Amino acid sequence: MSAPAANEAQASSGGSYSRRVGLFSGVMLVIGGIIGSGIFLNPAIVAQRVHTPGLTLGAWLLGGGVALIGAFIYGELGQRIPKAGGSYVYLRDAFGELPAFLNAWGLLLMIATGAIAAVAVTFANYTLAWTGLPADYRLPLAIGAIVLLSGINYFGVRPGALTQNIFTVLKLVALAVLVGAGLLLSGAAPVQTVAPEPPDSIVLALGAALVPVLFSYGGWQQTNFVAEELVDPERNLPRALLLGVIGVVGVYLLANLTYLRTLGAGGLAASSAPAADALGRLLGPAGRTFITAGVALSTFGFLNLVILVSPRVYQAMAADGLFFPWMARLHPRHHTPAAAIVFQAAWAILLTGTGTYGELLDYVVFADWLVFGATAATLFVYRAREKRGQAPRVSYRVPGYPLTPLLFIAAALYVVVGSTASNPLNALKGTLLLGAGVPVFLYWRRRREGQAKAPASQASVVGGP
After folding, report:
1. Is it the case that residue 446 has pLDDT exceeding 90?
2. Digit-coded pLDDT (tens) for 366-394
C-alpha cells in the first residue's frame, strides 16, 4: 500500500493521531524507555567481566556513546518521517514491506508482549518484597498492572504520557537518592583495598561487558513509535532523543560510580542486587527498603512506556493492509489505537499466566539489536535518495556520517552475534518464530491485493458493454 493509501486507511479507520505532548514529555518518554531494572542489576555482570573500576566505568561510557549515536540516527529518521510506527515505517519505506512486517510481527508475538509480561512479573516481585505481601499475590499484581496501564493508555496519549512523566520522575528520585548517598556517605562504608587484576584480554572483556551495557541502554527508539503524537515532531523528536539519552548516560555513570565507591569492584561483581546492597550498606535496612520500592516504581514506569508506544506499530502494520483491519482503527474520541492496545494486553496477559514469556524473550534476545542495525542501515538509503533529489534535505543531520552509523551497525551486529553464539539453540528458535511471520505476511498481502482487484472487477461488470 502506498503512503497516501495508508494515510487514507488510517483516516477512514477513526481519524488521525492528535499531537498533544511536547518536548518535556518526549524527553520523559526517552528516559523512561531506557531506565528499567537494568541499571539496578546489570552493573554486577559488567564488573564480573572487566574486573577493574576504570574498565567498569569505561564500558558504561562506551555503551553510552553507542546509545548516543543511536539517538542521532533515530533523530534524523524521525525528522525525515515523523509518523507513528518508528522502525516499521523506516524499514518499509527503505527495504520493503516484508522486513517491516517481520519487525512488527516479532514485536507483537514476542518482543513487546514478552517484555510486558516479564516486566510486569518483575514489578510484582519487587512490590512483594517491598510490601511483604504473600507470594500468591504475584500473578494478580502482574496482570493487574497490565490491565491498569492498558486502560490508562486506551483513553489517550495524554494520560499515558502523564503517567510516564510521574513514574520517570519517581525513578529518577530513587536514583538521585542512591547517587547522593553514595557520593556523600561512601567514606563511611569501607571497601576492599586490594586492587583487582585486569582481565587477560581487555578488548575481549570490554566486548563481553558491552552486551549487558547495551541492553541497559536500549529503549530510546520507542519514542519514535509515537512520533505523530508529539507537538512539532520534526523539531522535538530529535531534541527529545538527544536530551534523554545524554541524561541517562550521566545517571548511569553516577550510579556505577556509587556502586564502586560503596562496594568496590570485587563487591560489585559479587552482588546479586547492587543497588540494594549499596544503599543497605549506606543507610541500613531503610535504604534497602527504599531502593526496593524504587525498582518497583521504575519497572512500573517502564511497563507503561512499552504499553503506550508498541500498539502504534501494530496500527501502522494493519493500516497497510497487512493485519486485521480492526487493528488499524483509531478510537474516534481518544485518537488511540484502542483495538491494538486491547489485543496487546490480552496476549501479554496470556503469556504472563502461562509463564512462557521468559522462553520467548530468550529466543529473541538478539531481535532488538537486529532491528536497530537494520533501521540504522535505512539512513544510507534515505541519504542516497536525497543525493539523487528523490527525498528532501532535512535540517537535522547525524554527525560523523557515514562513520558513526557504521559504528552503530557494527555494535548491533556484535550484540546479535554474541547473543547467538552464547545460546545458538534459542537463537534458532527465535529465528523460526520470526520466520513463521513470512506465510502470515504472504496471506495478508494476497488478501489485500484480492480486495483491491474486487472493486475493479465489479465496476467492469456493472459498466458492461
Report:
1. yes
2. 778 888 999 999 999 999 999 999 988 88
DSSP SS3 for 207: helix
Q: Which residues contact 413 (CB under 8 A, 6 or more apart)?
A: 373
For the record, the C-alpha cell of 360 comes out as 520467548
Contact by Cβ (8 Å): 107, 313 = yes
Inter-CA distances, 410 with 116, 188, 463, Å: 28, 43, 58
* Residue 53 contacts residue 269 (beta carbons within 8 Å): no
Other CB atoms within a 10 A radius of the CB of residue 391 amount to: 16
- 95 vs 378: CA distance, rounded Å: 8
Distance between CA atoms of residues 186 and 194, nearest Å: 17
CA 340 to chain centre: 18
Contact 344, 336 (CB under 8 A): no
- The rounded distance, in Å, linking the Cα atoms of 373 and 103 is 12
Average pLDDT, the chain: 84
| Under 8 Å between Cβ of 316 and 85 | yes
Q: Which of 374, 394, 223, 325 is nearest to 6 (CA)?
A: 325
Provide CB contacts within 8 A for 43, sequence distance 6+.
56, 60, 255, 256, 259, 268, 274
DSSP-assigned beta bridge partners for residue 230: 21
Residues with Cβ < 8 Å from 280, sequence gap 6 or more?
A: 287, 288, 291
